Amino acid sequence: VFPGNCWAFKGHQGQVVIRLPARVHLTAITVQHITKEASPSGTVISAPKDIAVFVSLPGISVDADREEETLLGMFTYNTEKDPIQTFPLKNMLLPRAFSRVKLLVKSNWGNPWYTCIYRVQVHGKMENRKAPAEGQD
Predict the structure, then answer these.
(1) What is the pLDDT of residues 108-122, one digit of tens each?
(2) What pLDDT was estimated at residue 3?
(3) How far apart are CA 97 and CA 33, in angstroms?
(4) Is 2 within the bounds of a domain?
(5) What is this structure's pTM?
(6) Distance between CA atoms of 78 and 30, rounded to whole angstroms?
């Protein structure tokens, strides 16, 4: 993670949809930004602040062309804490696996021109992953 080497979007709001390589039972999401010490300006006002995580449920919407989104969590990235922050998701409400996750940044820490996200990690268990037989690795 190097200053300026981020996914940047104009303004203080934006979104990204992450397509996972397999269907996953989601458990948490990790967001990373640079530290104040690593920042050339000495600030991290471009860091995301209020973030919401959604998944899409195809075929549930009244409109056949649209997908119903379900909120799995809202959280605040705190620039005073560790630059790598993990937040648990409320997947218990939807006991199924998903292949896409939407990260909606609702605000940042004060930069009016852009917001930067350096790294996003999605945590969970892959669907249909079988446990190894006893005695095998």
Answers:
(1) 999 999 999 999 999
(2) 79
(3) 27
(4) no
(5) 0.82
(6) 12
Cα(103)–Cα(55) distance, rounded to whole angstroms? 9
Phi, psi of 91 (to 5 degrees): -75, -10
- Domain extent at residue 18: 7-69+91-126
Q: Which pLDDT value is given to residue 59? A: 53
**Structure tokens belonging to residue 38:** 């690593």
Q: For the chain, how many structural domains are there in total?
A: 1
Token couple for 25:
């039972």
Measured between alpha carbons, how far is 72 from 91 in angstroms, rounded to an integer? Answer: 6
CATH number of the structural domain spanning residue 43: 2.60.120.260
Read off the DSSP letter of residue 111. -
Mean pLDDT value across the chain = 86
What's the chain's length in residues? 137
Tokens 């996200």, residue located: 117
DSSP state of 115: E
Structure tokens at 113: 């021109």
Residues 6+ apart with CB under 8 A from 94: 55, 57, 70, 72
Residue 131 CA from chain centroid, whole number: 27
C-alpha distances in Å from residue 55, one per residue of 3, 13, 44, 89: 30, 18, 28, 11
